[in-house]
């Protein structure tokens, strides 16, 4: 049986980054709030902010890093929902390459972001509420063979 954190997770329409003009524009995550949380996280980690790369089509997320003595932590921020995830490598898309949030990830939660953990992100889509996704979004998910929550929301489908 799926963990309650996963089964309670609901994907809103457009979470895949796909939308049609007739549906209206997708919401945008507040990039200033993300940057503010990023600098707070770097201070909490005793490190510094590394490279920040804003979302660019077809990616659905911003990428940033915090560099500390223990190494570099890659932070993904969804461009349309206030969701944050962590990984060890920079890529244009993800499926299961997520890592557990570091202890200072709570700074993102304090700034209003939902910090997703590896267990949630690698959960099969069958364990997630996907009822709000459009038929077009499902076509893309099936076309690209995506099977995890993280793969659906942190992608670069074209």
Mean pLDDT score? 90
Spans of at least 5 consecutive residues whose pLDDT stays below 50 are: none
Strand count, sense and closure of the main sheet?
5 strands, mixed
**Number of E-state strands:** 5
How much helical structure, as a percent, in the residues? 25-40%
String of helices and strands = HHEEEEHEHHH
Radius of gyration from CA coordinates: 15 Å
Describe the model.
Helices cover 27% and strands 18% of the residues. It is built from six helices and five strands, in the order ααββββαβααα. The protein has helices spanning 4-7, 31-45, 106-110, 118-121, 135-144, 149-153, and strands spanning 48-53, 61-68, 71-78, 83-87, 114-115. It is globular. The protein starts with a helix and ends in a 5-residue tail after the last helix.
Essential attributes:
single chain, globular, 158 residues, alpha+beta, 5 strands
What topology emerges from the helices and strands here?
Elements: H1 4-7, H2 31-45, E1 48-53, E2 61-68, E3 71-78, E4 83-87, H3 106-110, E5 114-115, H4 118-121, H5 135-144, H6 149-153
